[in-house]
Amino acid sequence: MISLDLALPDSRFLRQSTTIDSRVEIRAAFERARTATDEILAPVSETGLVTQVSPAHAPLVWDLALVAHFEELWLLRNLNGSAAMEDEHPGVYEAFRARNGGLPSLRPEAVRAYADDVRERALHLVDHVDFDAPNALLRRGFVFGLVLQHELQHQETMLQTIQLDTASEYPTREEEPPDTVPAGPDEIFVEAGSFILGATDEPWAYDNELVPHEVEVRPFFIDREPVTNAQFVEFIARRGYETPKHWSERGWEWRENEDVSAPLYWELGDHGWERMRFGTREPVPLEEPVQHVSFYEAEAFAHWAGKRLPTEAEWERVAAWDERRGKSRFPWGREFMGYEANLGRNRFRPAPVGSYAGGESPSGGVQLTGDVWEWTSSHFLPYPGFLSFPYPEYSEIYFGEEYRVLRGGSWATDPLLARGSFRSWELPQRRHLFAGFRCARDA
Ligand code: AVJ
């Protein structure tokens, strides 16, 4: 047998289009998504599916119920005008939103049957709907993209929930280490200038990515790579968690109340820091981007390092703007072939910093897409000209000073969601995300 010493792109991603506008492609994307959902849930026991591991996280069976409900609501009811289906979960979504005092229990078997039933009808619609009908939901297949992206986002939520259950072992996929980028400077310099913030040619962009608009950024430095576990261990050793001056007022209050002294899932073992990852204890790999830190911890680290967090505009400028070509979806260009970034559960953890030569941005940024979501200093606010579409509960109700924006996607994020204009958001104290950060500073 001949062994080829080549890092071949993961076949799951080959010819996987990241914009999809034909029936065949929509169908394929729906099928790929459901296969992934099933794959994620397959190793979980029936009891595991219905157990609530943490108060802020619904049992896994709820993710599936919500995915199916959302699909029924947008494709079958709102698009096709069908009546609500007769199932045993009327009001599932409403109960989830209200969530006062626990959630009603759902039977996995019944939820699976409901999800399958909805999917069958949805695929029928994909084959027969008139895409040219005068309906804003159908423009460039938008509503199918909406439903698909919802399921893909819940896949990451499910993995967060599975990771939260540290007492249960969950099988992970381990790949050979990816290729590496030649060494470079710690920081990259970005000149003053204007660029286009927001989605420009993304048929399935969410309302919060619109309207694309020109913004001016001052010159700044940004870390070439995400902050590593090694650097974070140093922050801990230098008493970063005990030094109030590095923390914002609210951050310090949170640190005190919660008595936080290391990233979530970390414990000090006999031979140094260890972490729980999908139910297995292992030494903290020093060269990996740190994950499971809150916005407050990221902010404190940056202050300790004499830096700050980047704004989301700075992040997008580095990750999705090319002085010569203009807007680009990914740091390396428009398509993801499987070898440019750590996305889509290719590995079940971040890759060591300095990985993925093919993923470098024109300005020299590394691992901007994938590995870990990156906290930014920006509040989740609407762009100028924002119009809620197609419903205010996706973005609009979260706008304000409460939430911070995260960018770039993680190892668990589907490539379809990892476009450079995609905005995620979370409360500053939350640590269950596969999130880390990189620092920036004024030039
Ligand atoms: C974009 C990740 C913040 O999970 O709250 C899923 C996505 N919205 N179902 C969230 C979402 C409704 C959303 N985030």
Give an overview in words.
It is a single chain. Helix 1 packs parallel to helix 6. This protein is an alpha+beta fold. A four-stranded mixed β-sheet has the order 12-11-10-13. Strands 1-4-14 form a three-stranded antiparallel β-sheet, with helices on one face. Strands 5-6-7 form a three-stranded antiparallel β-sheet, with no helix packed on it. It is globular and about 60 Å long. 30% of the residues lie in helices and 14% in strands. The site of N,N,N-trimethyl-histidine (AVJ) has 6 residues, from helix 6 and strand 12.
List its salient traits.
single chain; 443 residues; alpha+beta; four-stranded mixed beta sheet; three-stranded antiparallel beta sheet; 10 helices; 30% helix; 14% strand; globular; binds N,N,N-trimethyl-histidine
Unreliable stretches (pLDDT < 50, length at least 5) are 1-19
- H/E series: HHHHHHEEEEHHEEEHHEEEEEEE
| Shape descriptor | globular
Helix/sheet category? alpha+beta
Helix percentage range? 25-40%
Can you summarize this structure?
The protein has 443 residues and is α+β, with helices and mostly antiparallel strands. It contains ten helices and 14 strands. The strands form five sheets. Strands 12-11-10-13 form a four-stranded mixed β-sheet.
Indicate the topology.
Blueprint lengths: L22 H19 L4 H5 L9 H20 L12 H7 L9 H21 L13 H23 L22 E4 L2 E5 L15 E5 L2 E4 L5 H9 L11 H10 L7 E4 L2 E6 L2 E4 L11 H10 L7 H9 E2 L3 E2 L45 E8 L19 E8 L16 E3 L8 E2 L3 E3 L1
Parallel strand pairs: 10-13
Antiparallel strand pairs: 1-4, 2-3, 4-14, 5-6, 6-7, 8-9, 10-11, 11-12
Helix pairs in contact: 1-6, 3-5, 3-6, 8-9
The structure holds N,N,N-trimethyl-histidine.
The site of N,N,N-trimethyl-histidine has 6 residues, from helix 6 and strand 12.
